[in-house]
Amino acid sequence: MLNIGLMAADQQTYYLSIASGVEDYYTGRGEAPGRWLGTGAELLGLAGMVDEADLTAVLEGRAPGSDERLTRAKLPGLDFTFRAPKSISILYGLGEAGTVTGEVVAAHDAAVDAAVGYLERQVCLSRRRTDGVQHQVPGDGFVAAGFRHQTSRAGDPTLHTHVLIANMTRMPDGRWGALHSPPMFHHAKTAGFLYQAQLRAELTRRLGVEWQPVTNGYADVAGISRHVIDEFSTRRAEILDAMEARAEHSAKAAQIAALDTRKAKVYDVDANALRADWAQRADEVGFGPIQVAELLERGVTREPQLWSVGVLFDDLASPTGVTEHASTFGRRDVVRAVAERMGDGADVTAIEDLADGFIAEHRVIEVGDVAGEPRWTTIELLVTENRVVERARAQRDAGAAIAQPDKVEAAIAARPSISDEQAAMVRHLTLSGAGIDVAVGAAGTGKTFTFDAAREGWEASGYSVFGAALSARAAAELSAGSGIPSMTITRLLNQLDEGRLVLDAGCVVVIDESGMVGTRTLDRLSSYTTEAGAKLVLAGDTAQLPEIDAGGSFRAMSLHAPPTMLVENRRQIHEWEIGALNDLRNGRVSEAVAAYGANGRIITADNADALRQRLVDDWFAAPGDDKVMIATRRADVADLNDRARALLDAAGRFGNHELGIDRRIRVAGREFAVGDQVLAVCRNHWDLDILNGDLGTVTAINERHRTVTFHCERVDAERTMPADRLEQGFLDHGYARTNYKTQGATADRIFTLGGDGDLDRQAAYTALSRGRVENRLYLSTPDEAVWSILTVNAQRAQRPEGRDLLLEHAERELSRDRSQHLASELRDILPEPHGEPVEVGREALLAELPDRVVERTLADAVAQVTARLDRLQQSEPPAVDDGLGLDLW
What we know:
Mean pLDDT: 84
Strand content: 15-25%
Shape: globular
Number of helices: 36
Strand order of the largest sheet: 14-13-15-16-12-17
Number of domains: 4
Radius of gyration: 30 Å
Largest sheet: 6 strands, parallel
Helix content: 40-55%
């Protein structure tokens, strides 16, 4: 794990007092001394143990031992904190002193050095102005000081190192300048993955440690259970409690909570006494020093087992590789993917070589540059993207599913409330003859009502109409609203693959919420319908939530095969809100934010905790029951639900008061009571007729059998969730929901939690278009929270006030565009919109490969990487550091 702290301008005296030992933050009693890191430190003659005067100098931008100012940067620098997995800290704390502990410490130090080296090579940059234009220039390395700590403030074993990187580097012209920090933040996640991979490799070599599966770059030691890890996570529990009290769950919130819950230093703690305490606590949970010794005795010291280069590259280039969830990737995406696939870990330089080898592989092609970084994609995805778009182009005049005009007009006439644009969409879909039609509908325009009329026209003309959506709940809503029998896309494709469903020219397949469907899935769907001569209708909205998988195809098809559209908002009751939503949808964010602000729909509070409570209080006080709270993070959803239940409980809303019954049950960390609103989550339960996303109200609780019965809105009947599935967390509260759970839903009033980078334009448009009567947006200003806690004298913190600041913050949040684009759009190899189709296949793409790829064949890349790995595996491991310093932070 890697966290970054940015030193604020008027925090300099605080960090200097830390370095000088006044606060004893980085150099505690009994702790190992700091050590200089980075090429920049060497240039200044800094090596070995950190001297307080030298650290003071570089943080002030001075040359050590001199008053010469090298830089005049406002910020002293950054604090990179590398933290070992808790299971490794447990190995350190319970392992044999001087042997196991020394190996763990040496492994950690080597991993920190390797990760810092990566950052130094990739993002040690400054900026220089030339002819009035500022541009990036490479730096000659970091001036950094590493301070290793082995305990948390709660006294748990927590191996971590603070790397203070001074805000200076030497530029190519020999002058010193401030660091350009944004790229460092961009590469922080990758550096964290590399630290973890190097740490696994070191401990595999040194102690023969075996590993649990790697998840998000992180792996715990095999044989150390979650129960044991939780026992030694007191500090983690304190931070989580603080975050819960604040109702904050982001990385920045964790930083605030960590600083806000710091305990005073404890001096004169005997290392042996501390280790004895750890051993006693471990014995109480059945995993003490004896079990650690047995675990390590089973292991065999070995070189990390690396993937075969060919197998690794095949995996990375596959549909489940680096393009599974994004159409393009950068070098750091590949580095993370390689690091995560190395279960035993690998050296950072080996991982980088493998990443570069893959990028040079014949199945990878550079497609462009985004924000100054090259982007690549795979030939497989490029060909798939082109196939999807070209298939839609080629199917324009396929003569598919052309209904009888009189039947279509009869269906339209049977719906007196149908609008002109809805009728136009019905006519287009049923009479165009296109094998693939794209239907774009803005939020609240009545797509399912329109499809009901189209279905009637097709069926009256002898066609069979099927529907599908990503989720079972969305499929059920499509079926209920349009009369089209529907299922999940996964089930539809399974039936087609297995031959249980066979399409022909008499079939129409309607896919709802197509804007969330990935490119490869659209390729499979369109392939089946095209080969059968059936019609495929893709309905969705490019302005709402984007694809989870690699996407951009729905958007591209809407550009290259002109869609039929619905734009008239028939949901919101206020004209100003209809206009504001239209502005937001079309990228006029300033106008939209101004309208919401002028109408009191953007709310803030003094801090994040107060903001969330204000949101829940407003939700509770709002009239009626048709109201929903929306948040992006599941943790925020859980917090809002808990707060809502507290208000409802205090108001006596739970239980059957007429009968004097108030049955409750607590399971999987959640309490359920009669009267609770509940939401089925995580999966579909076909045997129980309970779908993921089903809403209902608890009507009965069986305390003996530990079951919950609720009235399910979808079927207007009772359904019972059994004990085993409750224990697995398949039932949650439904007062607050994630944005993805509410897309396609409608309520009277919506209360949306934003801030701290959670929202973007698509998410905001989706959330703010759900409510008929009222939609409110609640925004915090997390930077102010960080500022107030990090400031030495909180009373001196400058807290900007005024509505303009709030609106500026809202505009910044809602201006982020996270829509997906095709990789081929970056490369600009697709035909111009509405032009003649062109064939772009594998051979054509291979012909366009850069010379470097043609000249450097896969065999060359494999040979170079293999040679590099051989050299690395034959090298001597770093020397063992037997230091046993302790720090109570």
